[in-house]
Write a structure and sequence with these properties.
mainly alpha, 6 helices, 4 strands
Length: 173
Amino acid sequence: LAAANPKLGRFDPYTPIALQIDLPPTLINRFDLIFPIRDLPSIELDTKIATHVLTLQQRPEEIKPEIPINLFKKYISYAKQMIFPKLTQEAVEEIKNFYVMLRNTSQRGEAELRPIPISARQLEALVRLAEGSARTRLSNLVTREDAIVSINLLKYCLMQVGFDYETGQIDID
């Protein structure tokens, strides 16, 4: 888990996000998921944030978490110590099909220099994310649905930071 600021302090909505991250691709590639957080003004959202922060400052006792903190800590501890999900054949097939399909989508450019939409590192990330999905359900089996959750998360992130708008292609590099 890491947090970093964009090069210019805020993301420019008119410039590809990948160009605004001042980290080398070899380092960025080590993260399973990347979520850029854009600071876009919105009356509705800004009002909610302001109300929450000011209420927290004025009357902190009124802000209650959805799940009591002690229960949440026990849940996390139990999941880490007792749940070790294993891939089902359906999950394996779902992840494998996605990986092979994305790696072999037609790409423009010379064969040797064509963009790589996904690498083995992202394949391993898909497995970790699917296992994490199963673990949140306290399941020792990674189902097809867990695999789909991991695929959707990775697709979302790839579209946020790995999509080249000039070529219309995903390029993990």
